[in-house]
Amino acid sequence: MENINPAPAKNPRVKKGAKAAATVLVGLGLLAAPGTLAGWSDSKAISDATIQSGELALDATSIGWDLNGTPVAEEDLDTLRLSPGDQLSYSGTADVTLEGTNLAAQLSMTEAATSGDLASSPVVDIDWSIDGSTDPLTLTEANDGSSYAVSWSLALAPAGDPAYQTGKEAQLQTLDLSGVEIQLVQVPKA
Prior knowledge:
Blueprint lengths: L11 H21 L22 E13 L2 E3 L14 E13 L4 E6 L14 E7 L6 E4 L6 E10 L25 E5 L4
Antiparallel strand pairs: 1-2, 1-3, 3-7, 4-6, 4-8, 5-7
């Protein structure tokens, strides 16, 4: 019997294209395979050491408040009514933790963070100090574990002071103490 459907003629281009596609697929498979094409390899850790970071911390302990030398409980501060000549003072200690190679920090207070009418009154004087200095203290890891005396005060000018121009200055005004902070802030080591 005779074949009515003759076999299609082979196209040499299709054969070359199939070989090229197969070669590309094998190459991609090798590139995607894990590992390397090398037969041997080796590796070594750069060190067996474990490093750790340091610590910068501040612990503030209140010694207390006083008004003109008389102790005042902190919970009574909201009920105080200051008069010309009064001085409200805070004293405490700041204990610092400075653990770190090349660590430096400044210890200071945020006197300017006070808000309210009394903060800008011409008859009010606000001061702070740390270990007797009104400049921030620059500390290093050599100061780790040290304690520093901290003080803050607000004084109303005494009666008769020329700052009282109208006789109404600083009456019925407030001062928010929540923004007054002892701060320990990292700085570049000199």
